[in-house]
Design a protein that fits this description.
The protein is α/β, with parallel strands linked by helices. It folds into 3 domains: about 15-420, no CATH class; about 445-585, STAS domain (Transcription Regulator spoIIAA, 2-Layer Sandwich), CATH 3.30.750; about 595-735, Sandwich (Jelly Rolls). Helix content is about 60%, strand content about 10%. It contains 28 helices and 16 strands. It has a 5-stranded mixed beta sheet. Helix 2 (about 15-45) packs parallel to helix 4 (about 85-100) and helix 4 packs across helix 5. The chain is elongated. The relative contact order is 0.10.
Length: about 750
């Protein structure tokens, strides 16, 4: 979108009819983004990083402001909302724990804090760069290639991490089997069990109430209940804070405290580099989640969304946000749909939400120190529980059992070992799924013989009968898809079974058509070489048709050339060659076709009628290369072919010439245009010296006037030839549709 159209679009939104709804929706979205920033910061900056939670909230909030503003301005779907995301935040939380364990024993809290912030900034900036690179090269549709159950397993694993992180926020203890007795003690139980109940309340209410104010209302109600119970118990705010029930205390100052250049000297770079896998996972999962969200928004809004433009918008936001320590953020499906359905569906809502975040960022966060941890933990638990319900409960009745098992496996590995190990399992499962499912795809598109499929060479009835009788000596395999080691092995097994089948005629030719093959790996070429060896052992000629240039080079390198291997540019040429070999070795010279009068007489069951019919034709002897008719010419005659060979070509735009049909003795030419009075649809050129019989319009008129019986015989012959041609074509089409 150019600058002027963009400004014009923004200008249309500054109207009172849209301004007030946009402002209202912006305030609501801003509050939700603030709660998410607090939640994700608390998830990352806990344990030894707890003293830096205010700064963490500032970094999370500034990232949400920048990403949200970039998405609001640059999205292809006005009304799309951008902000911090839970899946990358959960992975960054895992990374922060790993960094804490990798720091030198002498490192202090400040060194740990700076190292984590730098890691966050690097992860966010690299994710933004990855987004932008994918958009630049138009690769927005890459999400279509990631197996659905693997994506579901990653998201369900993220839900597990959010649930564990929520408990950690509420009790300041990392949940594990070793810590289970501690978590079940009455004092600790009272700290996290209400949060779990609050998450259940979220789920139950939001299933029945789909309103923009539902989440803020539940959060404010939970806060009010918390303080009401505390008042009944005689607990002051100071006592609650001292006992660890509240987030604070936070300083009454600017939340965002960017790192100084001198802080970079405190970074423990080995610990940062040790999180390369985590950072790569953030990039991959964020890309998939962004594209899925954008696709969901497209479906929800019933409009086209440019996936590459959405990647570019989020890429710019994350590049800028990463430079100031912000968390990874991109388009949020739920808030975007909410803005469309409940709000104004305007870009201004996202801009107003960013403005509210900036106000909180600059005004300080002293009031945030009164926010109960149990409410915040309940919100986090609800987010994680939503993932688990969606991918472990709802998919049980919709996904195949193998796909569901993949999701469950990734979650179990996440819980038992770790998220990075689960990522590795997920990638391994993706490969296994590809091999299993693709190996089930039939590499053989069609398996035919000359009985079902013949070349475009139109032959005499006698020659066709001979080819059909010998048709089982030729096996035609039309291949498809990407041929790799699994499908190639199946192909060799099928070929060997046919070659060695004693109940079928011995094969003389095996034709492999590569027209619909997209490529093959190096292992598959070994199987093609084995197939060539089998063919040579059984004295079978291997005919390869229409391999791509790349596959031709691979075949040349992997299969030794000899007389048992033939390569042709297309299936039709390969079939023609095989038919010629069958005719040459099956028929004695002079037995394939008889004279034209004899063929017509056999068709009419009367040599006398055939002779009277041909009396109106002019016999012509043509040299090789003679143009019998040209595309676009007037249809002034029709022809019977007695001997020789000629080919019909279609001349396309740009000078490209396509072979339509090759014709030999006992055929009719030009009859369609002759009887319909249409211009010639193809050019016909003799491939060898030929003998034809020419019937002009004047001769036909004379025949109809003087010899109606001969005219009737002419139409009868042409109808039978056309009927035979139609039967042949229908048989070929039917064979290719099986």
């Amino acid at each position: 979108m150019g600058v002027s159209p963009f400004l014009a679009e923004i200008g249309k939104e500054f109207r009172w009819a849209r301004l007030l709804p946009s402002l209202t929706m912006g305030l609501i979205i801003g509050l939700v983004e603030l709660m998410l920033a607090i939640s994700f910061a608390a998830l990352i900056f806990n344990g030894p990083l707890s003293p830096f939670l205010p700064n963490g909230i500032g970094f999370a909030l500034v990232g949400a402001i920048i990403t949200g503003t970039a998405v609001a301005l640059l999205t292809s779907a006005p009304g799309a909302i951008g902000g911090n995301q839970d899946a990358p935040a959960a992975i960054i939380a895992v990374a922060s724990v790993a960094i804490a364990g990798a720091m030198p024993p002498a490192a202090g809290e400040r060194e740990l804090y700076v190292t984590v912030v730098v890691t966050i900034g690097i992860a966010t900036a690299l994710t933004g760069l990855f987004f932008y690179g994918l958009a630049h090269y138009g690769l927005g549709n890459l999400v279509r290639f990631l197996p659905y159950p693997v994506v579901g397993g990653f998201l369900a694993g993220t839900g597990w991490l959010l649930v564990m992180g929520a408990i950690s926020v509420m009790v300041d203890v990392t949940p594990s089997l070793d810590q289970l007795p501690l978590l079940l003690q009455p004092e600790q139980l009272m700290r996290w069990l209400p949060g779990v109940l609050l998450a259940v309340v979220f789920v139950l209410i939001l299933k029945r109430i789909d309103h923009v104010l539902a989440v803020p209302a539940i959060v404010m109600g939970a806060v009010a209940i918390f303080y009401a119970v505390a008042a009944l118990g005689g607990q002051s705010v100071a006592a609650l804070s001292a006992n660890g029930w509240l987030l604070g205390p936070f300083p009454d100052e600017n939340l965002w405290q960017p790192l100084a250049m001198a802080d970079l000297a405190l970074v423990h770079w080995p610990a940062v580099l040790g999180q390369a896998v985590n950072i790569g996972t953030v990039m991959l999962m964020s890309t998939v989640a962004l594209l899925l969200n954008a696709s969901g928004l497209e479906l929800a809004r019933g409009m086209d969304v440019s996936l590459n433009r959405e990647l570019r918008a989020a890429g710019i936001g994350n590049l800028l946000g990463g430079g100031v320590g912000g968390l990874v953020g991109f388009q949020q499906l739920s808030l975007s749909v909410m803005n469309e359905n409940v709000g104004s569906g305007s870009r201004l809502a996202g801009l107003f939400a960013g403005a509210l975040g900036a106000l909180v960022l600059l005004a300080g966060a002293s009031t945030l120190s009164m926010f109960p941890k149990v409410v915040l933990g309940g919100l986090l638990f609800f987010l994680g529980l939503s993932f688990l319900l969606e991918w472990l409960v709802e998919t049980w009745s919709t996904l195949p059992r193998m796909d569901y098992a993949v999701i469950l496996l990734i979650v179990v590995v996440t819980a038992a070992i770790g998220f990075m190990e689960a990522v590795g399992v997920g990638l391994l499962v993706a490969v296994i799924l590809f091999v299993i499912k693709y190996s089930r795809t039939e590499v053989i598109r069609d398996e035919l013989t000359c009985r079902q499929l013949q070349s475009r060479v139109t032959r005499s009835p006698g020659a066709r009968r001979i080819i059909e009788a010998a048709g089982d000596h030729l096996s035609i395999l039309r291949l498809q898809g990407f041929v790799f080691f699994g499908t190639a092995a199946q192909l060799v097994t099928r070929v060997r079974r046919r070659m060695e089948d004693p109940n079928q005629p011995a094969l003389r030719f095996l034709l492999l058509d590569f027209r619909h093959v997209t490529g093959s790996d190096s292992t598959a070429l070994l199987y093609f070489a084995k197939m060539a060896q089998l063919a040579e052992r059984h004295h079978i000629t291997l005919v390869l048709t229409e391999p791509s240039p790349a596959m031709q080079r691979q075949l040349d390198a992997g299969i030794a050339k000899n007389d048992t291997i033939r390569v042709f540019p297309d299936l039709d040429r390969g079939l023609e060659w095989c038919e010629e070999q069958l005719l040459a070795t099956t028929v004695r010279p002079g037995r394939v076709q008889d004279g034209l009068q004899h063929e017509i007489g056999r068709t009419l069951a009367s040599e006398e009628t055939a002779a009277s019919l041909l009396a109106y034709f002019e016999r012509q002897e043509l040299e090789k290369g003679h143009t019998l008719m040209r595309q676009g010419d007037a249809p002034d005659a029709l022809y019977f072919v007695e001997s020789g060979q000629m080919t019909a070509y279609l001349e396309q735009d740009g000078g490209k010439v396509v072979r339509l049909q090759t014709m030999r003795g006992w055929n009719v030419l030009g009859e369609i245009g002759f009887f319909l009075d249409n211009e010639r649809t193809a050019t016909v050129v003799t491939d060898a010296p030929a003998v034809v019989y020419h019937l002009s319009r004047e001769a036909l008129a004379m025949m109809c006037d003087k010899d109606p019986e001969a005219a009737t015989a002419l139409h009868q012959v042409i109808v039978r030839l056309l009927a035979a041609r139609v039967v042949h074509l229908v048989g070929a089409v039917d064979a290719l549709r099986r």
